[in-house]
Amino acid sequence: MLFNSLEFLIFFPVVTLLYFAIPHKVRYIWLLVASYFFYMCWNPKYALLMAFSTLSTYAAGVLIDKSSKTLHKKLWVALSFTINIAILFFFKYFDFAIDNLNAVLSLGGFELVNPAFDVILPVGISFYTFQALGYTVDVYRKDIKAEKNVLRYALFVSFFPQLVAGPIERSGNLIKQLRERHYFNTKRVANGMMLMLWGFFEKLVIADRAAYVVDTVYNNYTQHTGLTLALATVLFAFQIYCDFASYSDIARGAAQVMGFDLMKNFETPYFAKSVSEFWRRWHISLSTWFRDYLYIPLGGNRRGRARKYFNLFVVFLLSGLWHGASWNYVIWGALNGFYQIVGDMTKGIRRKISNKLQLDREVFSNKLMKVIVTFVLINFSWIFFRAESFTAAMTIVKNMFSEFNLWILTDGTLFTLGLDAKDMFVLLLSLAVLLIVSIMKYKGVMIRDTLAKQGIWFRYLVYLAGIFAVLIFGIYGPTYDASQFIYFQF
User: Which of 108, 174, 361, 480 is in Cβ range 3.0-4.6 Å of 169 for a Cys bridge?
Assistant: First the structure.
């Protein structure tokens, strides 16, 4: 079931109304049933896989909590990780591993491996697996006590707003909220629905519209050069941001309506002044997961600069692999790790040059230049993320710099890339709205709180304007097949 589907617009109000109508002591059971129904709308069989992951990590948590010896605790953690990583590997990386094994075997003239079955990637498996494994580590570290109620723990793993594409919640934040009593609060509900409305605007008005241009160019990349490829790459940067941020916003808004607070997953990432800052603002739940459960256990930055760079590079290689079983994702992760290593290595040199030239690094122009340079670097890495393969990505890079015809901005070529003049204008206007809202957020303006303080006539005028903007300019309708969110494939 997609957030941007008619089914969800029926499902969510029904679930919410019944949630507040039934007694508190059975509400978590109702949410658990609703969450599994939500997930089973894709493929009922894979709900069994999620249940198995849930039971294995639940049992590991209980056994860790009961064990008195550190060695035993470590063994239960290792077993939990082995089981769940093995499941993740089989369903997500099996085909990738076989393809690479065959490539190696072919070099030696050996017989190729030909599996007798196809493996289909279960939606959301990377997200709920990481969330469950994070719980196992939290129990081992004694950050939380093991949850004894298996149904409540199952809800933690499967909570439907963030089940499929995050944010990847921490056990210390969500499990305790599952025990709390939540009351219907008009202000909170309005706040949550406003966030959901903004998410629908990001998805239906911006992301799905930008996708027409991106898909037109990237699906026929050999037929395009120069500015056309550059434009599609920039639009993909906004497409993937609005697509993923919209899911997080709808998830957070839906949870807030029911009384739950999920972690913020994005914080104006394209205003970052360095790649390392970008990753503190982009997919925050995953970045902090890798930091807390991989980077720091590897030694973090406590064992010298060389080890720090090694740890950082490993984290981003695995982050790339987490996103997809393909070498272009690995290269994308490696590139972002490389950016940060080079940035850290040259930090002192850049500071000395600035001092030598008496440059004030805090003035707006220098900050803007840093933002632009970071945006360009991130955009270049997005090529490897969006391209269908590493070979395709290299061809796109080559073609992008082979010809740069500025006349496509005026000769009508832009309107042959999937959007006509009207839709292109709507896209540019909606991107301007996104920019204004992002600037306000960056400046610390709490838009929803500010709006809540206004008169009721003004608030409802804004609400209606947002609803009509989505209804009039959103990409949907009788012939529209609700597009999946990009991160569903991860």
Answer: 174
